Amino acid sequence: MSRPEEIRDRLANVHQIGSIISTLRAIAAAHQAEAKAHLQAIRAQEAAVAEALSAALALGGPTGAGAPAPGITIVIGAAQGFSGTYGERMAEAAQAAVQAGDRLMVVGSRTLGALADQGLAPDWSAEMAPHAPEVPPLAIRMADALFERLAEAPEASVRMIHADPDDIGAGPQHRSLFPFDTSRFPPDARPAPMLNLPAQSLIASLIEEYVFTEICEGLMLGFAAENAARAEAMGRAQTAVKRIAGDLRQEFQRSRQDQMTTEIVELATAAEAVGEA
Q1: Distance (Å, whole) CA 192 – CA 208
Q2: Whole-prediction pTM value?
Q3: Which of 106, 190, 204, 258 is the most exposed place for a label (fewest CB within 10 A)?
Q4: Comparison of pLDDT for 203 and 219, the residue scoring more
Q5: Which CATH architecture has domain 24-182+201-233?
C-alpha cells in the first residue's frame, strides 16, 4: 500500500485536474450560451430574406430544385479536443462525402487533422472562429470561396454538414444548399413590390444572401455544438474525478490508520524491550 504522503500528493494532483476540468466546462457552457443568443439574430435575418424571396418569386422565377449531383460538401468540424467523440463523428461524415465524390470545404483544425491522417486534403479550409462574434466574418470568407467555385461549376450541388447543439447524440446534420429549392418559399399573394432592377437579378441576389445566412447559421450551430459536446464530456470527467478523489481519500484513511497501527506496535515493542532490559 502507498504511503499516506504519496496518496496525499496524488489527491492534490486530482484536485488540480478537477479545477481545470471545471474551468473548461464553464468556458464551454458560456460559449454555447453566447452562440444561442447570436442564433436568434441570424434566424431573424434568415426569415427576413425568406420573406423577400417569397415576394420576389411572385414576379416569376425558377422553381424547385434539380436532382442532387456530386459537388461540394461543407463540413463544420471540430476545432479542439476534449469533446468526446464529436470530432471523430464529423471527420467520418467528411470522409463519407469524399467517398461520394464530393470536394470538401472544411472548418476546424481537429477535423482537418483527422482527415490528414487519412491522406485527405480539402479543397478549402479554415480554422473555426474562437468566439461567436467572429462567426459572421468567417461565413463571409466561406461564402466568397463557395461562390467562386460555383462560378466555375454552376451545376455543382452543395451540401453542408454540421451538428445540432440541442441533440449532440443525433450525429451530423445534413442540409442542401444547391441546387436551390425555391419551392420552400411560396410566392407572396400580396401585390408585387415596385422594382428598379430585373426580377431575375433580384432573385439571384436574394438567393446568395439566403445561402450566406444558412452558412452563418451552420457555422454558429457547429460552434455551439462543439462547445455543448465539450461541456458534456467535461461533465463526465468531473464525475470521474470526484469518484477518483473519493477513492483516494478512503485509501489515505486506510493507509494512515495502518501507519499509525504500525507505529503503535513498534513503540509497544520498543517499550517492552526496554522493560526487559
Answers
A1: 21
A2: 0.83
A3: 190
A4: 219
A5: 3-Layer(aba) Sandwich (3.40)
